[in-house]
Amino acid sequence: MSPVRYIIGFCLSLALTIVAYVIAVYYPEHQWALALLGLLAVTQLAVQLTYFLHLGEEVGPRLKQLSFLFMAAILMIIIIGSVWIMSNLNERMMHFTPDEKTNYMLKEYDKGF
Amino acid sequence: MLTLDRTIGTHFFTSDMGGNPMMYVNLIWAWGHPEVYILILPAFGVFSEVVSTFSRKRLFGYTSMVIAIMAITLLSFTVWLHHFFTMGAGANVNAFFGIMTMIIAVPTGVKVFNWLFTMFRGRISFKTPMLWFMGFITTFTIGGVTGVLMAVPGIDFQVHNSLFLVAHFHNMIIGGVLFGAFAALAYWWPKFTGFRLHEGLGIAAFWSWLVGFILAFGPLYILGLMGAVRRLDSYDASLGWQGLFIVAGVGVAIILLGVFFQVLQLAYSIWKRKELAVGPDPWDARTLEWAISTPIAEYNFATLDEVHERDAFWAFKQSGKHRSAAYHDITMPKNSGFGVLIAGAAFLVGFAVIWHVWWLAVIAFVVLIVLIICVGMREDIERTIPAERVATIENKLWGHRS
Amino acid sequence: MSEAATEQKQLLKRTSIGFWLYLMTDCLLFASLFATYVVMRDATAGGPSGIDIFEMPLVLAETIILLTSSLACGLALVALATKNMRQLLVTLSLTFMLGAAFLVIEISEFAKLIGEGYGPQASGFLSAFFTLVGTHGAHVFIGLLWLAILFATFIRRGITDKLTRQLTLFGLFWHFLDLIWIFVFTVVYLMEVVT
Question: Could you give the ipTM of this predicted complex?
């Protein structure tokens, strides 16, 4: 059992964190800022899964890897699906911003249902 | 999130202040659709066991059965919008989820064909569990195809929240889940009690349920297509639907008769349990649970014999192999009251939060945490049954047989 | 390896797979909270949005503190394997103190916002923000409670097989919390500033 893996993982994660922070706070208007942030987050995920959580070291029935992949698939489906559905609904439902919707609801309430 | 809205006044699903009620609909069905597959997959498992036992043939296409289950599991997470096609999403969104809903019918169809092929050239005996399977395979298939019909968003716009929908999901749950539960009860009852349920009353119960179900829900399909909406307590007489509703009412009465037969069957069978007593393998079954004695010893299996194929018990019976007589010490968990206590505390927390009894919620929650910590700190949690004691128990259970 | 040691190793493997499955379900809990947050990011109802209320330097500090706590936890597991009592004591204490520091900063952030009238009841965006970040914080709190009990067990009974199992599971939990925080940090704070 070696502490080296943890220290490597820590240094990589720290670097990725600081780069992401610098991009977000000092270069927020950059064209690829959002995509880069996503990429950095996923990279740090991979780093921490490998060096801290030891994913990938299992032999035999690779249950941790399998369950992680299944969870990741469901997670992507739920998040991407929900965002797609909700933005589609919001777009089609009278183009209200939330504030406009509040004002509209209040006006309708005054009119009396 | 709903609890937070109801208790502390957050704005997840409110109509104003930035809330979005459709997000609730979205999330609840993202859970709700996988839930119905959680309901039906165990029933499918029961039927796989029942079909192979009562056709005296091993399950056809085991590998494809497993792949079908895996496909259903993954796909069931990709269809949830079909519960709210009519709530204003665009054509692309509706089309995607409609297509996924149709695709998920395919692995289910694979399973249906595999069960039928299991029956083909088998020596079928129509005991009660097998009758429930026959009832399932017919009604569930029909209900399933009505589901594929509603997967088309254009059609769903006509039948959403109509009695057609109501008939469909009752068809799936009753024909699928409930018949599966009844089959399981009839099939495994002799294993855990040592006597079988009265067959005649079981047959009567089955036919009442099947005929009753068809009469109760068949008219609802027709009424739904004619425009009858759900969640109404009465429909205008001028619509001319009364006849069909009366048929449905008769169906309900016949189902009630079926329930009556089931209760009678339980009561009568328990009363006559000495006459109805059976050995450990009343169905001449194929799987290992029938290899152990009835009543079942607390450790289930006294020895762990090596297994080389799926229907291992059937293979043992064919080869005339005897149980090995070398018993070992068996390590069992100690009995504990903590499970009941933790469940009780959790119940009190839930009850208190629902009824806003805050003092009880806090106290029960603290008790719950303390109990969980106590469980974690227990050291002495196992006991060993020595080999001699195992031998004594086995000899008593099996008598002279080895 | 002796038979007893092999048995312990297998028991540890089985237990940690079971705990891993629980962690996967916890990830899905966070998935629904993340989905809700992304959908409600702009639902500010006339109130403040993220840019108005986030203090980025504090968030960076929180992130680095939690990351270091995760490192300390990993080093504690190394100490456990090498049966180094002193190192175990030091690293576990460090894990706890850094985790507690993280929570202190987060709670002070929440208290400040609520004091200004921007609590979870103020808008959909704030409901989603407080619930996502707060749920993560609640997990951290439970983790600290768990760690305290394990620490007390270690002081009383030293390193037993059972403690090894429990600390390994705690390690999984603590690393997983830092993983979730990467995404909270990115999706909630950083992406808010960018868009």
Answer: 0.91
